[in-house]
């Protein structure tokens, strides 16, 4: 009985996105380019906000932290996926798999809370402008960022604690391009139905609550702007639509995979690419490069 409970699988086999070498070569070029853009874009935004005194405000403080989290989140999954395109036998050690799960949920959970914090910041700025400076002071901003990191850590460690002691003694093929809990848990040598429900509820409920809070905040922002200015409403609608697009691309796959796990492999892979690779690329463009003050800061940098 003691032997059965021991983990005897030292590594997992990753099947990847596809089997075709031609398609893998094409995807290698695409994802390498996207990863390079993600890294350079997010680092540039974080450094620009830190260096430019005109951007030392609550909104940009939160944006700088978002860029840092996106940099970390993309680095958890994408480099391994890129190097695997060059390998015929794609494997990941048990420890590497657990690390990928931990940091993926750590940064992913933290980003969810940070996006809600950013929406709250915009809500206060637009709906309660006279009280903005007193509500969004330095202490509140630091508290919001710390809350995002702490929530991400608690969420991640609770997920990891549930699966790290599972017995893996037979199957070891992961039909994906990275390690994630729904995939790994199916390989355990025991009935994991109840555990799957618990883990899916944990991740799914967190994503759903954050998603609803984000939509509510944007709804109130648009409603407030519309009541005060029709011209401002059009501009706010354009901005909020761009933000909501990124939010849907990030939260949608998470909610679908965890709350409605249909176990359709190609769908799971397609959705995972969005929140692991595409969203970290879009965030700098949507949240910052469209912003007038960021453009002015770039101009000052050139001068």
Number of strands: 3
Oligomer: single chain
The mean pLDDT is: 83
Beta-strand portion reads: under 5%
> Which CATH top level class fits?
Mainly Alpha
Cα distance spanning the termini:
71 Å
The CATH topology is what?
Answer: Rhopdopsin 7-helix transmembrane proteins
Number of domains: 1
H-E string = EHHEHHHEHHHHH
Helix content: over 70%
Fourth-tier CATH superfamily name = Rhodopsin 7-helix transmembrane proteins
Strand order of the largest sheet: 2-1-3
* Class from helix and strand fractions: mainly alpha
Outline type: globular
What key attributes describe this structure?
303 residues, disordered N terminus, single chain, mainly alpha, Rhopdopsin 7-helix transmembrane proteins, 10 helices
Q: Can you give a write-up of this model?
A:
By secondary structure, this protein is mainly alpha-helical. The chain has one domain: Up-down Bundle (Rhopdopsin 7-helix transmembrane proteins). 76% of the residues lie in helices and 3% in strands. It is built from ten helices and three strands; from the N terminus they run βααβαααβααααα. The chain has helices at 21-51, 58-84, 94-127, 132-135, 138-163, 181-185, 193-228, 230-259, 265-289, 292-302; strands at 11-14, 91-93, 173-174. It has a three-stranded mixed sheet with strand order 2-1-3. Helix 7 packs antiparallel against helix 8. The longest helix is centred in the C-terminal third of the chain and has 36 residues, at 193-228. The radius of gyration is 21 Å and the shape is globular. The chain starts with 10 loop residues before the first strand and ends with a helix. Mean pLDDT is 83; it is low at 1-5. It is found in: Cell membrane. It is a multi-pass membrane protein.
């Amino acid at each position: 009985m003691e032997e059965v409970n021991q983990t005897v699988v030292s590594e997992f086999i990753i099947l990847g996105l596809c089997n075709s070498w031609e398609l893998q070569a094409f995807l290698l070029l695409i994802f390498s380019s996207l990863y390079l853009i993600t890294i350079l874009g997010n680092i540039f935004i974080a450094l620009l906000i830190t260096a430019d005194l005109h951007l030392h405000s609550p909104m940009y403080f939160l944006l700088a932290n978002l860029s840092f989290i996106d940099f970390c989140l993309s680095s958890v999954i994408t480099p391994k996926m890129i190097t695997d395109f060059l390998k015929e036998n794609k494997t990941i050690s048990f420890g590497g798999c657990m690390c990928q799960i931990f940091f993926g949920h750590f940064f992913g959970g933290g980003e969810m809370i940070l996006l809600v914090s950013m929406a709250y910041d915009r809500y206060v700025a637009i709906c309660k402008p006279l009280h903005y400076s007193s509500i969004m002071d330095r202490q509140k901003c630091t508290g919001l960022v710390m809350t995002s990191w702490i929530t991400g850590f608690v969420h991640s460690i609770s997920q990891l604690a549930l699966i790290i002691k599972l017995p893996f003694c037979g199957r070891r093929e992961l039909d994906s391009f990275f390690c994630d809990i729904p995939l790994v848990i199916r390989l355990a040598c025991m009935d994991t139905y109840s555990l799957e429900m618990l883990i899916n509820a944990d991740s799914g409920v967190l994503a759903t609550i954050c998603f609803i809070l984000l939509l509510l905040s944007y709804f109130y922002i648009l409603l407030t702007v519309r009541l005060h200015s029709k011209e401002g409403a059009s501009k706010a609608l354009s901005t909020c639509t761009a933000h909501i697009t990124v939010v849907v691309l990030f939260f949608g796959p998470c909610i679908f995979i965890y709350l409605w796990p249909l176990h359709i492999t190609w769908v799971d892979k397609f959705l995972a690419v969005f929140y692991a690779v595409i969203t970290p690329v879009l965030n700098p463009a949507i949240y910052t490069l469209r912003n007038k003050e960021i453009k002015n800061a770039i101009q000052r940098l050139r001068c």
